[in-house]
C-alpha cells in the first residue's frame, strides 16, 4: 500500500516483463500524474481498472501479453490520450501507444477511443473483441498502426477509413469481417502493410490498390474474393510480399507479370485459386523472388525456362496444375533452391539428371497424371540427421554388435536409422518424398499412412471455411492440446463438428498419426474428410512472435521480441551442443556462475582451453575426438552473441560435410 501511495505523483511506471500476477490495483486509477503505464508481459488477470480512462496525463498504456479479461473501460468523455502538448519535464515512453494485445478481453471496442487524439499505435490483436469496427477510429489524426487481428469482429470494413491518411499499418486479419474490400482503401497512400487475411471478404480486388506506392506487404489470403487481379497492381513499386492464396480468383496472369517489371517482390503466393492460361516467360524478370507458390490452380502448357533466371529463388511450388512437357534444365541449376514441388501435373519423363534435379524422387500414381515429383533440399532435418550420423556412427555400426546403452533423445521403437526420413508435415498421406542423403540407397522413403475405414463426405477446404466462418472463434465448441473443434453448418443445412488438428503443439508425430488412425476407424457418419494442408514456406508472414523453449532462445530476442533466421541458427547451435555433450540445455547441474545453462557452461570450458571436457565421454575415443571437436567449433559459431556473426544454414551444411569428407 505504501508503494502504491508513493505512485500518486509518479509520471512513469514501467514494470513490464516480470512475473507479476493478480489483478491490476485499483489505486492506479488515482495516479493522475501518470504519463506512461507499462505492465506488459506479466501474468496479470482480472479486468482493466475502470479509473484508467480518467488519467489526464496518460499517453502510453501497455497491458499486452497478460491474462486480462472483461472489456475496455468505457467513458463518454475519456481523459487519457487527449492532451496535445506535454511539458518539457514530463517523460513519455513511446507516446501514443495503446497496447492491449494478447489478452482475453471481450466485448465491443468503444467508440469513445475515436476521441483519444494522441493515439498513434492502437494494438488490440489476439483478444476476443466482437461487434463492429468503430467508425470513429478514422478520426484519429495521428493513427499510424491499427492492429485488430485475431478477434471476433464482424461487419464490413468502414468506408470512413479513407480519412485515416496517417495509417501505415492496417491489420484486420483472422476475424469474421464480410462484404467487399472498400475502394477507398486505395486513398491511404501512406500504407506500408495491409493484412486482411482469414475473413469472409467477397467481391473483387479494388483497382485503387494500385495507388499504394509505398505498400510492401499485401495479404488478403483465405477470403472469398473473385475476379481478376487488376492490372493497376503493377504500380505497387515497393511490394515485397504479396499473398492472395485460398480465394476464388481467376483469369490469366501473363499481362500482369509482363507489366510488373518494376516489382521488387520477394514472396508471391497465388496458390489455391482458379488462375488459368500459361505461365508467362516474364516470370523470369522478377529477379528478387525467393518464394513462388502457384500450386493448385489451372495453369497449363510448359514450365518457362526463364524461371531459371531467378537466382535468389529458394522455394518453388507448381504442383496440382495442368503443366506439361518437362522440367527445364535451367531450373535444375538454381543455386539457392531448397524446396521445389511439381507433383500432380502432366509432366513428361525423363526428369533432367542434372543439378538439384538429380535429387528428385519419383513414384508411379494412378490416373492420367502418372508422375509425382518433389524434393526438399538442405533442411534443418537433413543437417541434424547428418550430425547425428557423424557422432553416433560407431554405435550404429553392426560390427559393434549394437551394444551400449541407448542414447537420450532417441525413441525405443527402432527408428534410430539416420537414413530414414520422418513424416513431418502432418498430412494423413505424406506425399513429400525426401531428399536422400545416401545416393546408394535403393530403399524408398517411408510414407506414413492413416487408413479411413468409413466412407467420407465429399467436402473441400473452401466448404469448411464457409461452414465455420473461416474458423471463427465464435464457432469453437471445444479445445484441447492437439485440436480445436468447431461448429460447422454445411450448405444443405446439416450441422457437424469439424476437428482442426494442429501439428505445432505438444504432441509428436506418432501421437498425431495415432489420432489420424483413430479418426479413420470411427464409424460416425458425420466424420468429415481429414484436411490439413501443409503450411507453405512462403507464409512466414503469419507470425514471427517468439514460440521457443528456454535454453534455445537467443539472447537478442529479449530486446527485439521477434524471431529471425539468425536466431534460428543460435537454436540449432544449442542442438549441436546437446549432441556432442549428451547434456540437456538447462538443468540444476549448471551453476549460476556458468550462465545457468549448457551454453554458458560450454563457453566457459572452451575459454579455459578445456573443450574436451564438454564432449560426451561415452563415445569419445581417438577416432571420434577430431570430429566431435570440429562439431563443437561449428556449434560455437552458431552461438555467437552477435547475430551477424552466425553462419547461415547452407554454410553449416558445408562445414558438416567437410567433417564427413575428412
Question: Nutshell version of this structure?
Answer:
The protein is α/β, with parallel strands linked by helices and 662 residues long.
Tell me what the structure shows.
With 662 residues, the chain is an alpha/beta fold. Among the domains are: 471-533, 2-Layer Sandwich (Phosphorylase Kinase, domain 1); 556-659, Transferase(Phosphotransferase), domain 1. The chain is built from 10 helices and 32 strands. The strands form 5 sheets. Strands 1-3-5-7-9-11-13-15-17-19-21-23-25-27-29-28 form a 16-stranded mixed beta sheet, with no helix packed on it. Strands 14-16-18-20-22-24-26 form a 7-stranded parallel beta sheet, with no helix packed on it. A 3-stranded parallel beta sheet has the order 2-4-6, with no helix packed on it. Helix 3 runs parallel beside helix 7 (565-581), helix 3 (380-396) packs parallel to helix 10 (649-661) and helix 7 (565-581) packs antiparallel against helix 9 (625-638).
Amino acid at each position: 500500500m505504501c508503494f502504491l501511495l508513493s505512485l500518486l505523483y509518479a509520471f512513469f511506471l514501467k514494470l513490464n516483463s516480470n512475473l507479476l500476477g493478480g489483478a491490476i490495483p485499483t489505486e492506479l486509477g488515482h495516479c493522475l500524474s501518470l504519463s506512461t503505464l507499462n505492465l506488459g508481459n506479466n501474468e496479470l488477470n482480472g479486468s482493466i481498472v475502470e479509473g484508467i480512462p480518467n488519467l489526464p496525463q496518460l499517453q502510453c498504456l501497455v497491458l499486452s501479453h497478460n491474462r486480462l479479461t472483461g472489456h475496455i473501460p468505457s467513458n463518454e468523455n475519456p481523459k487519457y490520450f487527449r492532451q496535445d502538448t506535454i511539458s518539457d519535464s514530463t517523460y513519455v515512453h513511446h507516446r501514443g501507444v495503446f497496447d492491449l494485445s494478447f489478452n482475453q478481453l471481450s466485448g465491443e471496442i468503444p467508440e469513445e477511443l475515436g476521441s483519444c487524439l494522441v493515439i498513434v499505435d492502437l494494438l488490440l490483436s489476439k483478444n476476443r473483441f466482437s461487434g463492429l469496427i468503430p467508425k470513429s477510429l478514422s478520426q484519429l489524426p495521428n493513427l499510424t498502426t491499427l492492429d485488430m487481428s485475431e478477434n471476433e469482429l464482424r461487419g464490413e470494413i468502414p468506408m470512413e477509413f479513407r480519412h485515416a491518411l496517417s495509417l501505415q499499418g492496417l491489420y484486420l486479419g483472422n476475424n469474421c469481417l464480410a462484404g467487399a474490400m472498400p475502394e477507398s482503401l486505395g486513398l491511404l497512400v501512406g500504407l506500408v502493410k495491409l493484412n486482411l487475411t482469414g475473413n469472409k471478404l467477397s467481391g473483387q480486388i479494388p483497382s485503387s490498390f494500385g495507388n499504394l506506392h509505398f505498400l510492401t506487404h499485401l495479404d488478403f489470403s483465405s477470403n472469398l474474393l473473385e475476379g481478376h487481379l487488376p492490372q493497376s497492381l503493377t504500380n505497387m513499386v515497393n511490394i515485397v510480399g504479396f499473398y492472395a492464396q485460398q480465394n476464388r480468383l481467376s483469369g490469366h496472369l501473363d499481362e500482369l507479370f509482363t507489366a510488373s517489371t518494376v516489382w521488387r517482390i520477394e514472396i508471391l503466393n497465388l496458390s489455391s485459386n482458379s488462375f488459368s492460361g500459361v505461365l508467362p516467360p516474364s516470370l523470369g524478370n522478377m529477379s528478387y523472388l525467393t518464394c513462388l507458390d502457384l500450386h493448385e490452380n489451372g495453369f497449363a502448357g510448359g514450365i518457362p525456362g526463364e524461371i531459371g533466371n531467378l537466382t535468389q529463388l529458394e522455394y518453388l511450388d507448381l504442383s496440382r496444375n495442368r503443366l506439361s512437357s518437362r522440367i527445364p534444365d535451367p531450373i535444375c541449376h538454381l543455386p539457392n533452391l531448397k524446396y521445389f514441388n511439381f507433383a500432380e501435373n502432366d509432366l513428361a519423363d525423363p526428369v533432367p539428371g542434372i543439378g538439384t534435379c538429380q535429387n528428385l524422387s519419383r513414384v508411379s500414381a494412378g490416373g492420367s497424371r502418372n508422375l509425382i515429383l518433389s524434393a526438399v533440399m538442405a533442411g534443418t532435418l537433413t543437417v541434424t540427421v547428418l550430425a547425428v550420423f557423424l557422432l553416433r556412427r560407431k554405435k550404429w555400426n553392426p560390427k559393434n554388435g549394437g551394444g551400449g546403452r541407448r542414447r537420450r533423445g532417441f525413441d525405443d521403437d527402432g527408428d534410430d536409422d539416420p537414413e530414414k526420413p520422418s513424416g513431418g508435415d502432418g498430412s494423413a498421406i505424406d506425399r513429400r518424398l525426401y531428399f536422400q542423403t545416401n545416393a546408394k540407397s535403393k530403399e524408398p522413403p517411408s510414407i506414413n499412412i492413416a487408413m479411413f475405414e468409413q466412407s467420407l463426405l465429399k467436402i473441400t477446404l473452401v466448404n469448411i471455411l464457409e461452414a465455420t466462418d473461416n474458423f471463427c472463434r465464435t464457432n469453437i465448441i471445444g479445445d484441447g492440446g492437439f485440436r480445436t473443434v468447431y461448429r460447422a453448418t454445411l450448405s444443405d443445412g446439416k450441422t457437424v463438428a469439424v476437428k482442426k488438428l494442429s501439428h505445432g503443439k505438444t504432441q509428436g508425430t506418432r501421437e498425431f498419426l495415432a489420432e489420424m488412425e483413430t479418426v479413420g476407424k470411427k464409424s460416425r457418419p458425420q466424420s468429415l474428410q481429414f484436411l490439413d494442408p501443409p503450411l507453405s514456406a512462403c507464409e512466414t508472414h503469419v507470425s514471427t512472435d517468439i514460440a521457443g523453449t528456454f535454453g534455445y532462445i537467443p539472447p537478442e530476442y529479449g530486446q527485439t521480441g521477434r524471431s529471425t533466421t539468425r536466431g534460428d541458427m543460435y537454436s540449432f547451435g544449442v542442438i549441436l551442443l546437446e549432441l556432442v555433450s549428451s547434456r540437456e540445455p538447462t538443468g540444476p547441474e549448471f551453476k549460476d556462475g556458468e550462465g545457468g545453462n549448457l551454453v554458458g557452461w560450454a563457453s566457459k570450458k572452451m575459454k579455459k582451453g578445456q573443450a574436451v571436457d564438454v564432449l560426451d565421454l561415452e563415445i569419445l575415443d581417438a577416432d571420434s575426438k577430431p570430429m566431435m571437436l570440429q562439431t563443437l567449433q561449428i556449434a560455437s559459431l552458431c552461438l555467437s552473441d552477435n547475430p551477424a556473426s552466425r553462419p547461415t544454414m547452407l554454410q553449416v551444411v558445408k562445414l558438416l560435410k567437410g567433417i564427413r569428407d575428412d
